[in-house]
Amino acid sequence: MTARIFLKKGMEYMEIRKIQMTGRSSFVLTLPKNWVDSLEIQKNDPLGVIIQSDGNLLITKNISGEKIQRTKNIEVHQKTDPVFFYRMLIGIYIAGYNTIAISSKDRISGKIRECIKEFTNMLIGIEFVEETDNKIILKDLLNPLEMTFANSLKRMFVIAKSMHNKAIESLRTNNIALAAEVVQQDSDVDRLFWLIARQTNMIMQNVHLAQKMNTTIIEIIPHYHVGRIIERVADHAVRISRNVEKVKENQIETNIIDKISIASDKAILVFTQSVGSFFSHDIMNANRIIESIHSLETDYSKINSEILDLPAGLAVLIRNISDSIKRTGEYSADIAENVINYEMMVT
Predict the structure, then answer these.
(1) Rounded distance, CA 169 to CA 277, Å?
(2) Which pTM was predicted?
(3) In terms of Cα–Cα distance, which of 162, 112, 160 is closest to 133?
(4) Domains of the chain (ranges, CATH numbers)
(5) What's the distance, Cα to Cα, between the start and end of the chain in Å?
(6) Which of 135, 186, 243, 330 has fewest C-beta within 10 Å?
(7) For 221-244, how does the pLDDT look when each residue is reduced to its tens digit (9 = 90+)?
(8) DSSP-based three-state secondary structure for 93
């Protein structure tokens, strides 16, 4: 006899089935008929049973562990908004689709083709496999095993830290070219984070990938969260650079720049320490980082008090820079909190 417990009203439910025993040592559990029918499982077909770290069992038809092939079809027309179309492509990539088929009843416009080309240049693993006047097929050729979560995160951290330091250096030296370089580097951080988001979704859909990548679902979620935070730190480095580009040479007094540099050094130090704590699983250091963030408020207050008598336009630029430095420090505390939360889950 089967009982049902509804988890959401009118939607999801859990079936409660009793274990039966055959012989003296074999236990049998019947499978839901609608699930068997939906996967076209026949008598004597093999199924995989995987013991999860939390004690649950995963039953799957995919006993080979091969990557599940998923295709997304998009139809475009002459009035398709290129910006919206590009955002859709990013969403499809992150969702974990292996193949993207773009088609049109007419010829695919030049603007849409430019979006597709920019998309493939921006992301890791996506390549053209077919192209005609009214059809383009993109395919993911990357082996997920080649890019581990840890390696992607470490690379993101190195780039984001470099971006922040370059942004502050561009302010100190009024180097507009260096500020522009920071803006360009942001795409490197984005593509790594999108890869992490994509791999996270793929593992959620196919647990075999987690085993092949020597990780678990419990482990990948904190990596995704930290990746998101690092991506935001990089965004604030871009924001600093954008404001630096608006500052005229010698417009900011040296004492203000010195205070900004001091605040920046402290923020990037705790950022470095928080990421280090994540990889070393050091919850004591993570806790110290969280406590230390409050002391940085003094540095931001000094900067903000210095700009009270400045022209409004310049004061806004400096305040924007100071705020981005402050956010970098606060994001470091967020990473440290993730360290503690993650360690409490696995210990």
Answers:
(1) 27
(2) 0.82
(3) 112
(4) 2-60 (2.10.260.10), 71-142 (3.30.110.20), 147-346 (1.20.58.220)
(5) 38
(6) 135
(7) 899 999 999 999 999 999 999 999
(8) helix
